[in-house]
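User: I'm writing a short report section on ligand binding and want a predicted complex to refer to. Could you take this sequence and zinc ion and write out the structure as tokens? A short remark afterwards would be nice.
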Amino acid sequence: MVPKDCTRCNNNGIVYHRAYSGEYLCRNCFLFSIEDKTKRCVNKYSMLRYQDKVAVAVSGGKDSLSLLYILNKIYGEKNYITIIAITIDEGIPGYRDESLEITKDFCSKIGIENRVLKFGDVFGINMDELLAKRPSEKISSCSFCGTFRRRALDLISESVGASVVATGHNLDDQLQTFLINILSGDVERIGWIYPEPVEYGEKNIRKIKPFVEIYEHELVFYALHRGIPFQAEECPHKNESIRTDIRTILNSLESNHPGIKYNAFNSAIKISKLLKMDTSGSLTKKICSLCGRDSSSSVCSVCKNLMILSGASPYNGQKSDLD
Ligand SMILES: [Zn+2]
Ligand SMILES: [Zn+2]
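Assistant: Sure. The structure tokens for the complex follow:
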């Protein structure tokens, strides 16, 4: 039977039923629970240090805007860290314009600087032109875009002098990535899922994901009840990849077996920790022979993609579906 009052404070009307814990929560207790989970995750994996300069990657979606809000509320406003919002403009007319506007307005409302970097300024070409030049439709647009977006994020974080880059990846994102790696035989990548930050590049920037222990649908609920505006429209180039199929399967499992995503995520964390320890000793740092940046092979994925686009390198049909 549904109780009348909040399980936690016994005080207020219920707005949310957390099926996996059995709790019925009022608005305040729900909002607090998400902020508290974020803080616990940051502490558990030592994600932040005093006086870090944190670049929060903000796309204008619910995850990234909520992350910006929560990190600012818990750490920024108390001057434990300084925060800057960084946004990548891939040049997708209509779609990106709306999210740039939402991000700009939200940042000015909470008093945080927002820096935008355009694909065109880094690669001399925007996303629509990139897609038009693709040699094969089989190269997923998300995979192409993701590779370039990660490079753009690295460049802008370095240029603002960030010590940390925070992204809004949630539990669902991480669990999907884990399963994609399993299904595609990409075992080496599983170690990368472990949430403890690793310093990388010449500037030793740490990448953190403070929402990895939070369900996607709870972040939607958080943004709505916190009054955070966000772009709900999905990217027009989003391809119906294996990720979408896995997302559907996991959500259907979760509705019949509440908590199953959390259990599966915990298994993924344990496996990724073992694999991370196993591979960290053998990882030799390579430098891309074309752009001079860190790479896992002699030519980095950005340069490989640029070569494919220019026709200098034939598409070998092995581009992974990962984004
Ligand atoms: Zn309550
Ligand atoms: Zn390169």
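A remark for your report: The first helix runs from residue 27 to 44. The beta strands are 16-18, 23-25, 53-57, 82-89, 114-118, 164-166, 199-200, 205-208, 286-287, 294-295.
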